[in-house]
Design goal:
Layout lengths: L1 H9 L3 H21 L9 H21 L1 H13 L12 H26 L1 H11 L14 H18 L3 H19 L6 H7 L6 H7 L17 H5 L26 H6 L10
Helix pairs in contact: 1-8, 2-8, 3-7, 4-7, 5-6, 5-7, 5-8
Length: 272
């Protein structure tokens, strides 16, 4: 079965990748309407417009970097370069270690850096500016941030030596689980807490979207929660105490496209 999955992701059509992205948004959109965490007073599709626009720019930028991703992966595999080639592993362990490393470098590390480097933080602010976080917030990234993340995805490939099937599997899982942990869904507490021992749960990630520090600077994980636990950035708090947005941004213009795109270049906006 694992061999069949590796073959599938090695040859996955672009239409399937688009279906995973769109299907995930549609699925969690429906679930949000059934078991919402917060009862937002908003017109859901109007709120989604700016987030889906940023999703589109993210897709375009990722497509532009696709050639570099393929070349990096092919070179790493051909030269047996990366941690995955340090010692022989069965396929299941190869896949697990590869996914963990891609998640560490391509998601957790760049996310952590974006919160620590002020120039990068200004680009990342757009993601945190959403005052009504739901599944459409998952890919709400400034085009500049999408470039940074694409570069770290390439670095992640070199670090672990990931073949393209592993890269595609990771990116597919990342899209779905990011939509899941941003989704405005109310899971039973025991289930949500149980999930956090393996992957990032909705309540765990929502804490990261709390409007003030220190919560904003915690729970950086994308797929696996292990990195926050290892590096001491895991934080817990009751979900009903979470308030979305950022204390350094106005709370009434999170859907103002011109303002949001200009945040990185707006000198009047403080970074602390």
């Amino acid at each position: 079965m694992l061999e069949s999955l590796t073959h599938y992701f090695d040859t996955i059509p672009s239409s399937h990748r688009a279906l995973i992205l769109a299907g995930g948004i549609a699925f969690f959109w429906i679930i949000e309407g059934i078991i919402p965490l917060f009862q937002f007073k908003y017109v859901k599709w109007k709120h989604a417009k700016i987030n889906l626009l940023f999703t589109l720019t993210t897709v375009i930028i990722n497509f532009a970097f696709a050639f570099a991703l393929v070349k990096a992966s092919d070179w790493a595999v051909e030269n047996q370069f990366g941690i995955l080639y340090w010692f022989p592993m069965p396929l299941w362990l190869f896949a697990l270690v590869g996914l963990l490393l891609l998640d560490l470098v391509g998601a957790y590390l760049i996310h952590f850096i974006e919160h620590k480097v002020k120039v990068l933080w200004k680009f990342h602010m757009i993601h945190h500016a959403d005052t009504m976080v739901d599944t459409t917030t998952a890919n709400r990234h400034h085009p500049g941030e999408s470039v940074f993340r694409a570069i770290f995805a390439i670095i992640g490939i070199f670090v672990c030596g990931a073949p393209m099937w592993l890269v595609m599997a990771y990116q597919s899982a990342s899209a779905l689980l990011s939509q899941f942990n941003h989704a405005n869904i109310n899971l039973p507490t025991w289930l949500d807490r149980g999930i956090t021992w393996l992957i990032v749960s909705p309540n765990m990630h929502k804490i990261h979207h709390h409007y003030v520090r220190p919560q904003t600077d915690t729970n950086y994980g994308n797929i696996f929660s292990i990195w926050d636990r290892i590096f001491g950035t895991y934080h817990d708090m009751p979900a009903d105490q979470i308030q979305y947005g950022l204390d350094v941004l106005p709370l009434n213009n999170d859907s103002d496209l011109k303002f949001q795109v200009g945040i990185p270049f707006n000198k009047s906006i403080k970074t602390d």
